[in-house]
Structure formats: structure tokens, C-alpha cells
Amino acid sequence: MTGPGESSAARLLSQAGVLRFPSSRLDLFIMRDFLGAEECDDLVTIIESQHRPSTLADSNGDDAFRTSSTCDLSPQHPAVAALAEKLSRFSGIDPAHAEPLQGQRYEVGQQFKAHTDYFEPQSADYETYCSVSGQRTWTFMVYLNNVNAGGATRFRAIDKTIQPERGKLIAWNNRKPDGSLNAATLHHAMKVRAGRKYVITQWYRERPWG
Ligand SMILES: O=C(O)CCC(=O)C(=O)O
Ligand SMILES: [Fe+2]
């Protein structure tokens, strides 16, 4: 069964160039060249033009936990609207279930330590984040540039490290087939060692965004 805010392995694998990482613990998919060079460069320009310090949904007292910058991408921007539509067609998820797209920008030394994208049900702010749209379901993330050194995304539980590569998309299901949260989705955006790193993330929700 696939809920309204969910993609599926069958959907993703039916599209040319999509590979599945072999793991019984986590549904993780990779596609190179999801975006072309020009699309990536346009999105990097937008992120460069406007960003703020990234924040955490559940602050844990570690000021070094997430040190990147975030760009709230305007859905009015044609390049952003085009990407949102492309992701929705690709994922098969109704765009009503999509959060607004976000860009992340990492300078040398910046990172996002190991975390999950779902909201912790025990956290104080769980209701604030999830009462309207529900839990996060799937994550789709696109690397917008080749990083000179560092900046990989590491999934520790399945021992998989993905190198940033311009235009490459990765996608994973934050939940297990039975709908429970999947702790094996734990991932770490490792420190950039040289150059900058830019990504865009699309998170989807159980219910329409609102
Ligand atoms: O930048 C990355 O490699 C991962 C970013 C991430 O995990 C997030 O923004 O939730
Ligand atoms: Fe994440």
C-alpha cells in the first residue's frame, strides 16, 4: 500500500537511470544527472543570493550540529517551480504534499551531523511540526555542484557514503514498509573540506502541506 504522500520503489525504478542501493534496512535510490548543468547553476545562483543560518527542529544544545545556511526557495521563481514539478512527476507524489523547497549551502568546515529527517514523536515540538501535515514521508535531495573535497552524505546504518556530484539525486523513504519510522535513515552531511556545497531538498508529508 502506498499512501498519498508516498513514492514507491516500483515508481522510481520504472524511470531510466534510477538505481536502488541494495539494503533490506532502507529504501534508498540514486539517479545521476537528474538535473542538467544549467539547471543546477541557476539554482546555485538563487541560493547564493539569499540564505540564512540553518536551524534545527529539535535543538540539542550542540551549536556545531548544523552549521550550514538555508535558502527558502520562492515557488514563484520559474527555476524553482520547474524543479518542484519535475520532482513531483518523478516521485509520483501529489505536489500538495510537498514542503516548500529548501536549498542548503555549506562552506569549508560546515556540516549537518547525523540526524533523521522525520520528527521525533517524543520531542517537545512534535505537535507544532506535525499536527497539520503529518510526519515527513520521503526525502528527495539533489546535489547542485561537484565539491572540491568532503561534503559526502553518509548513511551510517547501511555503511553507504554518497559523494556529491552535480545533478545527482538521492531519495529515500523515511519510514519502513509498515509505516513506522526508520532509524536506519540516519545520515550525516559531512564537513566540506574544500570549495562549497549546494543541495536542494524536497520533503514530502503524510497530508497536504498547509
Ligand atoms: O547535505 C546533505 O548531504 C544532506 C542534507 C540533509 O540531510 C538535510 O538537509 O536534511
Ligand atoms: Fe537530512
TrEMBL record:
| Keywords of the record | Dioxygenase, Iron, Metal-binding, Oxidoreductase, Vitamin C
A Pfam short name = 2OG-FeII_Oxy_3
- Please give the superkingdom of this protein's source: Bacteria
Q: Name one GO molecular function term.
A: L-ascorbic acid binding
Check the record and name the PANTHER family matching this protein. Answer: PROLYL 4-HYDROXYLASE ALPHA SUBUNIT, TRANSMEMBRANE PROLYL 4-HYDROXYLASE
Q: Note whether Transcription occurs among the keywords.
A: no
Question: What protein does this entry describe?
Answer: Oxygenase
Q: Needs which cofactor?
A: L-ascorbate
* Domain Fe2OG dioxygenase: start-end pairs: 97-206
**PROSITE patterns per record:** FE2OG_OXY
Among InterPro entries, the record links this protein to:
Oxoglu/Fe-dep_dioxygenase_dom (IPR005123), P4HA-like (IPR045054), Pro_4_hyd_alph (IPR006620), Pro_4_hyd_alph_FE2OG_OXY (IPR044862)
